């Protein structure tokens, strides 16, 4: 099968096309013919070698964790899915990712796509959508009426987070660039703060939850806008426990624990019209296409998700 791999860490030029053996399913595994996958910042961070200690994979490495496609083979212990099902998944943490024509994953990481969901849309959801859900619903225990501040509301995780929060009945504030303000309002955001010209510390008070997708100074400043007992999940840094104790808040770094059950809840939100998928741009599964997709992701200006189309 065709795959885009890296054989050493480095720049986007390390992404090259190779022929790799098609995966075979074990007992509880599913082989998916991939129609679309997507790019997440963790992809190029892994490519650069920033995560080699955390994720010590052997080369060659196929990057990517998101996949949407059609079930082609199942192991003997798979009972929920069958050949021909339209599914999406956040695949396992290993060196055989989703920048390829096929991927194998497990039944408990996989969900059925909503009937009217395109493969491009479905491929954008698994990692970013589940991360947003895990941060807000599981870590922060969000409830109706909560005041929720989401940093980077126009990004991959951010645009899912604002919609999940609205579906729970929260009052949602988002930081973003001015050009993304109208898009965020269309998604239901109650207040948009232009991070380039406005200081969220001077605008937001007594927030129940702050979701940090930026890290650095943004994370450091976020404690002060929370009410006592508030929650601060971060996907971009490690919160300072002493500072969290000082402000009387629960803060922590969230690393996604993938779940097919959680992914199915996101598919249900889509089916109910409560979750829209923003696709910033699409690229083909080729050396040049994936290199361009990584370059676009590294700029950090994507409106929603960047998708790689594997099969048209």
3D architecture notes:
It comes from Sinobaca qinghaiensis. This protein has helices spanning 41-48, 119-124, 126-139, 156-167, 181-186, 200-203, 216-222, 241-247, 260-271, 287-298, and strands spanning 2-6, 16-19, 29-39, 61-62, 66-74, 86-90, 102-106, 110-112, 147-150, 171-176, 191-194, 207-211, 226-234, 250-253, 279-284, 305-309. With 312 residues, it is α/β, with parallel strands linked by helices. The chain has two domains: 2-125 and 277-309, Quinone Oxidoreductase, Chain A, domain 1; 128-253, 3-Layer(aba) Sandwich (Rossmann fold), CATH 3.40.50. The strands form three sheets. Strands 3, 5, 6, 7, 8, 15 and 16 form a seven-stranded mixed beta sheet that branches. A six-stranded parallel beta sheet has the order 11-10-9-12-13-14, sandwiched between helices. A three-stranded antiparallel beta sheet has the order 2-1-4, with no helix packed on it. Helix 3 (126-139) packs across helix 4. The radius of gyration is 19 Å and the shape is globular. The two termini are 16 Å apart.
């Amino acid at each position: 099968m065709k795959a885009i791999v890296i054989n050493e860490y480095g720049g986007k030029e390390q992404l090259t096309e190779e022929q790799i053996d098609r995966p075979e399913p074990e007992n509880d595994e599913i082989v998916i013919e991939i129609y679309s996958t997507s790019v997440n910042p963790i992809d190029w961070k892994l490519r650069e070698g920033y995560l080699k200690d955390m994720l010590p994979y052997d080369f060659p490495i196929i990057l990517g964790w998101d996949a949407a496609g059609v079930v082609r083979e199942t192991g003997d212990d798979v009972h929920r899915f069958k050949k021909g099902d339209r599914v999406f998944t956040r695949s396992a943490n290993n060196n055989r990712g989703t920048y390829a024509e096929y991927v194998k994953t497990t039944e408990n990481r996989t969900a059925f796509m909503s009937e009217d969901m395109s493969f491009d849309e479905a491929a954008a959801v698994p990692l970013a959508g589940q991360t947003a859900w895990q941060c807000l619903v599981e870590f922060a225990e969000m409830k109706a009426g909560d005041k929720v501040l989401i940093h980077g509301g126009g990004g991959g995780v951010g645009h899912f987070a604002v919609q999940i929060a609205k579906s729970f009945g929260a009052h949602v504030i988002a930081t973003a660039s001015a050009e993304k303000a109208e898009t965020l309002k269309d998604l239901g955001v109650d207040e948009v703060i232009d991070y380039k010209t406005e200081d969220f510390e001077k605008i937001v008070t007594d927030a129940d939850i702050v979701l940090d997708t930026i890290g650095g100074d943004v994370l450091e400043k976020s404690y002060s806008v929370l009410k006592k007992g508030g929650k601060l999940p971060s996907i971009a840094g490690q919160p300072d426990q002493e500072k969290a104790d000082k402000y009387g808040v629960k803060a922590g770094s969230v690393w996604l624990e993938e779940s097919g059950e959680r992914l199915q809840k996101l598919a249900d939100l889509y089916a109910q019209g409560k979750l829209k998928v923003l696709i910033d741009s699409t690229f083909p599964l080729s050396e040049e296409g994936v290199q361009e997709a990584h370059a676009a992701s590294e700029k950090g200006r994507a409106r929603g998700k960047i998708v790689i189309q594997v099969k048209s």
